[in-house]
Amino acid sequence: MLEFQVENMSCGSCANVISKAIKTIDPNVQVSVDVVSQTVRVKSGRSEKELANLIEECGYPVSKSTVV
Q: What keywords are annotated for this sequence in UniProt (predicted)?
């Protein structure tokens, strides 16, 4: 599982935008978004770089990512 630290994510709408975007490229993904800690956890067959780029394309900068 990958965990992304995501900046400027401040509400449920932000979480929905990111979740929906990730689910469009991987329908079988497990995604968990925590707005308070500004983290997105993803279990997917997609690469870390691809997921980070997708989150950033949604308008939310990824400051770091780790394997958890």
A: Metal-binding
Please list, in sequence order, all residues whose beta carbon lies within 8 angstroms of the beta carbon of residue 17, skipping any fewer than 6 positions away.
58, 59
Domains of the chain, earliest start first: 2-67 (3.30.70.100)
Pairwise CA distance, residues 2 & 57, whole Å: 18
Q: Do residues 25 and 47 touch, judged by C-beta distance below 8 A? A: no
Confidence of residue 50 (pLDDT cuts 50, 70, 90): very high
| CB-based contacts of 39, cutoff 8 Å, min separation 6 | 3, 4, 5, 6, 33
